[in-house]
Amino acid sequence: MVASEMPADPSPAPAVRVAGLVKRFGATTALAGVDLEVTQGTVFGLLGPNGAGKTTLVRVLATLLEPDAGRAEVFGRDVVHEAPAVREMLGLTGQFAAVDEILSGRENLHMFGRLFGLSSAEAEQRADALLQRFDLADAADRPARTYSGGMRRRLDLASSLLTRPRILFLDEPTTGLDPRSRNEIWAIVRELVGEGTTLLLTTQYLEEADQLADQIAVIDHGRVIAQGTGNELKDRVGGQLLEVELTSSAQRDRAQAVLAGVGCGDPAPGARPDQLTLPAPRDGLELIADAAAQLRSAGIGVSDLGLRRPTLDDVFLQLTGLPPSEDGAGPPPVASPPTTNTALRSAAIRHGGLILRLRPPSGRELRSAVTDAWVVTARNLRHFIRQPQLLIFSTIQPVMFVLLFVYVFGGAVRGSLPHGVKYVDFLLPGIFVQSVAFRATQTAIGLAEDLERGVVDRFRSMPMTRSAVLLGRTLADLVRNVLILGLMIVIGYLIGFRFHGGAPQALASVAVVAAFGFALSWIFAFVALTVRGAEAAQAAGFVAIFPLVFASSVFVPVTSMPDWLRTFAEASPVTLTADVARSYALTHGIPSSLGETAAWIGGLLVVFIPLCVWRYRRMS
Ligand SMILES: Nc1ncnc2c1ncn2[C@@H]1O[C@H](COP(=O)(O)OP(=O)(O)O)[C@@H](O)[C@H]1O
Ligand SMILES: [Mg+2]
Q: Does the Cβ of 175 fall within 6 Å of ligand 1?
C-alpha cells in the first residue's frame, strides 16, 4: 500500500486498554469488571481507598496476576498471552519499596540492570546516572536497609527506570512519605512525563491525582465509579468545600438555604446535624465574607466557618453518598461503570495447567538464562557474606549435635556399630546429611522473605528468565552448604574423625551430600511458593525434616530400631544418602546403595524443579 493512500494518522493504540476485567481471590472480588483506557504519553490516576482493587489492577497489568475474565492490553499486547512482550515495555514500582535491603543502592541498580539485559558496564553507567538523578549518590554504597523511606522509594523508582520503560506503573508512590519526599517523587513523575513516558499511578489522595494526572478514574469495590479530569471531578465535588458549624442543628435547613443564596451547592450527607459541608463555587475570602454576612443577617448562629480542599472522603460522599470503605466488603457502588468496548469483553481466559515448552531455547535465550541465574546467585551469596552470623549459627547447630552424640549418647550407641568402626567416624558423615537437611529450610525462608518484601514481584515483572530466581536461590544455598560441610570436616578432624578412603573418596562423600541438599532445596523452594510467609515455611520445613532425619541412619545404625521404624528408616533417602556418604568416607570402592541414592536425588529434582517453575509462573 502506498503511504499517501492510507487514512490520515490512525490514532495510536492506547497505552493501556482494559475491558471487563474481573479478578477474584476466593470469596473476595477484587476487580468486578473494570473498563478503562490510558492514552499514550499521559498520566492516568487511579484513585481509590484501601481495598478498592488498585494494586490488583496494577498487578494484572504488570503480568503478575492472571485475570479471571476480561482483557487487558499494554500497547496493544495482551498481558496474559503476550506477557514477555509486555514485560519488555513496563516498569513497576509496587506499593511497598521492593529493594534488596542487604545490597547497597548501587548494587541494587546494577543487579536489576543486568537482569534487564544490560551488560555489566552499561548497568554500571546507568546505575551511576540514576543515582545522581535521584539524589542518592552520597548514599550509593550504603546498604539500602539504612535508607529513609523517601530514599527507598527513590531507589525503587530508579530500579524500574534502568531501561527507560514505555509505561511505568506506580502503585501508591507517596503513601507514607513526608511532604518533602512526596514533592520529590512528584517532581520525578513530572520529569518522566516530559520525556514521553506513559504513567499509571494509583493513589488514595485526590490532591495527588489532581496534581499529576491528566485523567482520573475513581475506583471502589473493584469498579470504576467515576472518570474524568481533575477539574471535572472537582466540579462534581466542588473545587473547595465550605464547612460551617452551627450553634444549633435546628437552623440547619435555613442555613443551607442562605448559603445556596451565595452560590454554594448541595451539602454532602454529613454525620453531624450541626454541620454543613458544601461545594464552594468561588474561591477565597469573598465567598467567606458573603456567607458570613448573610448568615449573620439571617440570625443563624455559627461557631466555625472555613474553606478547605476536598479529600477522598468528600469525593466518595459526593459520588456515592457513602464514605470510602476499607476492605471492599461494604455495600455495592451506586453507579455502574461506563462500558467502553464491549467487543473486547471476553469469556474467562484462564489457561492453567503445566505447560511444557518443547521448543529448545535459542542461543540468546540460553545466554541470558545463564546470566540471570548467575546474577541472582551472586546476589544471594552476597547476602550470605554480608551476614556472617548466619554462617556461624548454621554451623553451631550441627556442632552441638556432634558433641551431644559423641559425648552423651555415643557410649550407648557404640555397641550396635559395625565391628571396628569408631562412633565419631560413623557419626560425621551422618552429621553432614543432617546439616544440609536442616539448612534446606533456609532456602524456603530466603525465598519467602523475597516474596514478602516484593523483590520477587519485581523479578517477575521483568523480562528475565523466570526460573533464574529459583535457580539463583538453590545454587547459592548449594555453595553455602559446601562451605558448611568444609567447616564440619575441620571440626570433625579436631575431635578425631578421619576420612579413611583417600581424597577422591572424601570428595565423593561431600558431593553426594551436597547433591542431596540441592534436591532438598528445590522441595523447600516449592514449600515457600506454596505456604507463603517465612515463619510458615520454616515451621512446615521443620515438621517434615525432623522425623526424616531422626528416623534414619544419620545418628545411629538403623539395626538398633524397632522393626516398624526400621522399615521406614531403611527406605528413607536420608538413610540412603548417609550410608553412601559414610561408605565413601570410611571405605574404598563404590557404595552399594549409590544407584538408589542417585535415583532419589535425580527423581526429586525431576519432580520439584518443574513444579517450582510452574508454581512461580502461576503465583498470585
Ligand atoms: N493475594 C490476595 N489474596 C486474597 N485477597 C486479596 C489478595 N490481593 C488482594 N486481595 C483483596 O482484594 C481486594 C483488593 O485489594 P487491593 O487490590 O490490594 O486493593 P488496593 O490496592 O486498592 O488497596 C481487597 O479486599 C484485598 O483484601
Ligand atoms: Mg494497594
A: no
Query: CA-CA-CA-CA torsion for 416, 422, 427, 430, nearest 10 degrees?
Result: -90
User: Is the confidence at residue 22, as pLDDT, over 60?
Assistant: yes
Q: Which of 56, 218, 220 to mutate to test the pocket of ligand 1 (most atoms within 8 A of CB)?
A: 56
Domain boundary among 263, 288, 308: 308
Tell me if 500 is assigned to some domain: yes
Closest ligand 1 atom to Cα of 327: 25
**Residue to substitute in 28, 65, 66, 201 for testing ligand 1 pocket (most ligand atoms within 8 angstroms of CB):** 28
- What residues make up the domain containing 472? 373-617
The per-residue pLDDT for range 380-434, each reduced to its tens digit, is 999 989 988 877 888 888 889 888 988 888 888 888 888 888 999 999 999 999 9
Domain assignment present for residue 414? The answer is yes
What would the mean pLDDT of 457-485 be, rounded to a whole number?
92
Does the CB atom of residue 53 touch ligand 1 within 6 A?
yes
Residues with CB under 5 A from ligand 2 (ion): 54-55, 95
Q: Within a domain: residue 299?
A: yes
- Residue range 594-614: average pLDDT? 96
SS3 of residue 143 by DSSP: strand
For residue 15, pLDDT beyond 50: yes
Overall domain count for the chain? 3
**Full strand arrangement of the beta sheet holding 198-203:** 90-93, 167-171, 198-203, 43-47, 215-220, 223-228
